[in-house]
């Protein structure tokens, strides 16, 4: 398994180009299952999770053509340089999403809504993914039942059928769920009649999916709000859509600039995607300047601790909680992080303490007492975002850090060593460590 070696203590300086959002690209790819016409996605990131989704979609019958970097280079929303991908599912060849593919990535469950809507049947293995809590899919299933689906759980599979087709309904999510909202948007787009999704997730990735579905001929209103209204249509057609910039990658590199007390220009991203995080960074004493097509982040010594609580968008994202903790471990004074989305998302704490970080967990909250210097250490990555917090701590720490078991990192960050290396970080991948 690969590891990453870092010799820390270098203030980063330079430019990092942010890729397309993984969490937007995955549901957008699943939308191919709703139409027999080509769907072209531009500004696609190159990540292991994208390959996993491609493999899953291929075995449902999708044909996937990827372009090299060039032709779409300037077409991304913010002038980004991602690849493009055209997905065409002329015919669904299988309604089964098998265990072996689904266990690699929880977002595989996003094929459930579209398969059920187009074929009246789907058999999807119960998902795996990061070990950050129990992460059930009960809310997806209950909501699909409201649209008339019959659901059985058998031998580790969700077996959903809708022989007469799905029918529009009023759905009130008891808890905000990103994946649940996405599954229902896709299912309701092809259901008969009107659907209202209340307490829907408002993440920008949901807006990207809803805009894409509308470009494919769906009728969705209320985009960006907690109430989405969908008038079902009989068929959807192809479209060409840009994946929004990755706000978690943006936040991670913004923290990399801050934690090393450096100065980084983040290009191809948008300030408005991360207002809660940037506002907390400013409170901590980091300078954040929106510039055309990006954001400039700069920090000097003397950052102060700031409390944050993770919340659904537009609140502070749970996917940046671990990275924030690394930053707070280097700030003056104490700060508190409260995690309200996932119950088991402090697995990075014992690893961060190996750098000398002073962190105490009490239930869903962690108290961090910042210290002047962290020191490099061998550590073990546990989940995707935890891995990046260890990289950040390693960049700030004095001496050598070895982050082991980094396969989760490749699921969500493209060419991380290259991007950080170009800003002066002393970082290298050790293959097969
Ligand atoms: C998505 C993101 C993930 C992010 C999370 C929260 C993708 C591919 N992944 O995950 O990176 O951390 O949003 O912002 O976009 N829940 C239930 N029952 C359900 C569904 C969810 O109890 O049926 C719970 C979950 O366990 C969790 C909370 O609801 O506690 C939010 O989960 P959800 O928003 O669904 O997260 P994902 O879509 O899995």
Describe the structure.
It is a single chain. With 433 residues, this protein is of the alpha/beta class. It is built from 14 helices and 24 strands. It has helices at 22-30, 48-60, 99-102, 112-119, 138-146, 178-189, 204-215, 247-259, 275-284, 321-328, 349-353, 384-396, 409-412, 416-421; strands at residues 3-7, 13-17, 39-44, 63-66, 83-88, 96-97, 121-125, 150-154, 157-161, 170-172, 194-198, 219-221, 227-231, 239-242, 263-267, 287-291, 294-298, 308-309, 334-338, 358-362, 365-369, 378-380, 400-404, 426-430. The strands form six sheets. A four-stranded mixed sheet has the order 22-23-1-24. The protein is elongated, with a radius of gyration of 21 Å. The model is unreliable at 70-79 and 129-133 (pLDDT under 50). Uridine-diphosphate-N-acetylglucosamine is lined by residues 23, 26, 106-107, 133, 135-140, 175, 177-180, 318-319, 341-342. Uridine-diphosphate-N-acetylglucosamine (UD1) binds next to helix 1, helix 5 and helix 6.
SSE layout:
Blueprint: E1 3-7, E2 13-17, H1 22-30, E3 39-44, H2 48-60, E4 63-66, E5 83-88, E6 96-97, H3 99-102, H4 112-119, E7 121-125, H5 138-146, E8 150-154, E9 157-161, E10 170-172, H6 178-189, E11 194-198, H7 204-215, E12 219-221, E13 227-231, E14 239-242, H8 247-259, E15 263-267, H9 275-284, E16 287-291, E17 294-298, E18 308-309, H10 321-328, E19 334-338, H11 349-353, E20 358-362, E21 365-369, E22 378-380, H12 384-396, E23 400-404, H13 409-412, H14 416-421, E24 426-430
Parallel strand pairs: 2-15, 3-14, 6-7, 10-11, 18-19, 22-23
Antiparallel strand pairs: 1-23, 1-24, 3-5, 4-5, 7-9, 8-9, 11-13, 12-13, 15-17, 16-17, 19-21, 20-21
Bound molecules: uridine-diphosphate-N-acetylglucosamine.
Uridine-diphosphate-N-acetylglucosamine (UD1) binds next to helix 1, helix 5 and helix 6.
């Amino acid at each position: 398994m690969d590891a990453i070696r870092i010799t820390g203590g270098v203030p980063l300086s330079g430019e990092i180009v942010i890729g397309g959002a993984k969490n937007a690209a995955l549901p957008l790819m699943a939308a191919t299952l709703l139409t027999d016409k080509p769907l072209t996605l531009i500004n696609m990131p190159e990540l292991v999770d994208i390959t996993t989704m491609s493999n899953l979609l291929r075995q449902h019958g999708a044909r996937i053509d990827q372009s090299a970097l060039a032709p779409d280079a300037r077409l991304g929303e913010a002038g980004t340089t991602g690849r493009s991908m055209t997905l065409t599912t002329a015919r669904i060849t299988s309604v089964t999403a098998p265990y072996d593919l689904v266990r690699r990535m929880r977002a595989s469950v996003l094929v459930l809504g579209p398969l059920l809507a187009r074929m009246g049947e789907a058999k999807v293995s119960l998902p795996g993914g990061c070990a950050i809590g129990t992460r059930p899919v009960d809310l997806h299933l209950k909501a699909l039942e409201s649209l008339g689906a019959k659901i059985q759980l058998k031998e580790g599979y969700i077996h959903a059928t809708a022989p007469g087709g799905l029918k529009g309904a009023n759905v009130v999510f008891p808890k905000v769920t990103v994946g649940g909202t996405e599954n229902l948007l896709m299912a309701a787009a092809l259901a008969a009649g009107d659907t209202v999704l209340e307490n829907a997730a408002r993440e920008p990735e949901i807006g990207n999916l809803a805009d894409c579905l509308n470009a494919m001929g769906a009728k969705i209103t209320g985009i960006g709000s907690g109430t989405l209204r969908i008038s079902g249509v009989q068929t959807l057609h192809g479209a060409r859509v840009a994946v929004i910039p990755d706000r978690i990658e943006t936040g991670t590199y913004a923290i990399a600039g801050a934690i090393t007390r450096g100065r980084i220009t983040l290009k191809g991203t948008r300030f408005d995607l991360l207002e809660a995080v940037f506002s907390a960074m400013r409170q901590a004493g980091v300078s954040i300047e929106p510039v055309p097509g990006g954001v400039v982040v700069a920090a000097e010594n003397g950052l102060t601790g700031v409390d944050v609580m993770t919340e659904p968008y537009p609140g502070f994202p749970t996917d940046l909680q671990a990275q924030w903790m690394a930053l707070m471990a280097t700030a003056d004074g104490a700060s508190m992080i409260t995690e309200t989305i996932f119950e088991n998302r402090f697995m990075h704490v014992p690893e961060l303490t190996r750098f000398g970080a002073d962190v105490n967990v009490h239930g869903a909250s962690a108290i961090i007492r910042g210290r002047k210097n962290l020191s490099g250490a061998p550590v073990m990555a546990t989940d995707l975002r935890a891995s990046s917090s260890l990289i950040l701590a390693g960049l700030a720490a004095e001496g050598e850090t070895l982050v082991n078991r980094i396969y989760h990192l490749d699921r969500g960050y493209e060419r991380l060593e290259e991007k950080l290396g170009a800003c002066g970080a002393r970082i290298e991948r050790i293959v097969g460590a």
